[in-house]
Amino acid sequence: VKFKSADSSLTQMNSRNRLLHQNMKQSGKYLELATLQFNVNDYEKVETDAFNNILQLADRLIFDESLKISIAGFTDNTGDTNYNQNLSLLRAQNVKQYMIDLGVNENQIIVSANGISHPAANNSTVEGRAANRRVEMLLMQ
């Protein structure tokens, strides 16, 4: 996997989007939260159940353009920090592309790369690391 380095404006936008996602999640002021899991170093393969979550959320976004979705990518803590940051972005961008392909307006989608930050579980166990390799989708008003 080859990655491009982000320029400062993209880094600033990612920081704003990360903060928005975390604030919305902590506040509980969102309509729905869905989580997709990924295998080690993977960003493309989405299981059927996870894809069904994407379909349901895309359907809601298509029929109500006042809604937005925050798609946040995460990784476990194994490997290089920069690699993990970029992998989390690829995961989120892949889900965004699914949404766009399904007919969601790109203006409704907010993407952030979170790398190893905000783990969902303890990274010292196999199960915890698996839980941390994820994309969170927050549906917002």
What general outline do the C-alpha atoms trace?
globular
Count every beta strand, where a strand is a DSSP E run of 2 or more residues: 4
Task: Tell me the helix content.
Answer: 40-55%
Low-confidence stretches: none
How would you name the oligomeric state of the polypeptide chains in this document? Answer: single chain
> Which structural class should the secondary elements be placed in?
alpha+beta
Q: In angstroms, what is the radius of gyration?
A: 14 Å
Strand content: 15-25%
Overall pLDDT level: 93
Strand order of the largest sheet: 1-4-2-3
Q: Could you give the distance between the termini?
A: 35 Å
Largest sheet geometry: 4 strands, mixed
What's the number of helices? 4
Q: Keywords, please?
A:
141 residues; alpha+beta; four-stranded mixed β-sheet; 4 strands; globular
Walk me through the structure:
The protein has 141 residues and is α+β, with helices and mostly antiparallel strands. Helix content is 45%, strand content 17%. It has 4 helices and 4 strands, in the order αβαβαβαβ. Strands 1-4-2-3 form a 4-stranded mixed beta sheet, sandwiched between helices. β2 (68-73), α3 and β3 form a beta-alpha-beta unit.
What secondary-structure arrangement, pairings included, does this model have?
Layout: H1 8-27, E1 32-37, H2 48-63, E2 68-73, H3 81-101, E3 109-113, H4 126-132, E4 134-140
Parallel strand pairs: 2-3
Antiparallel strand pairs: 1-4, 2-4
What is the compact description of this entry?
The protein has 141 residues and is of the alpha+beta class. The protein has 4 helices and 4 strands.
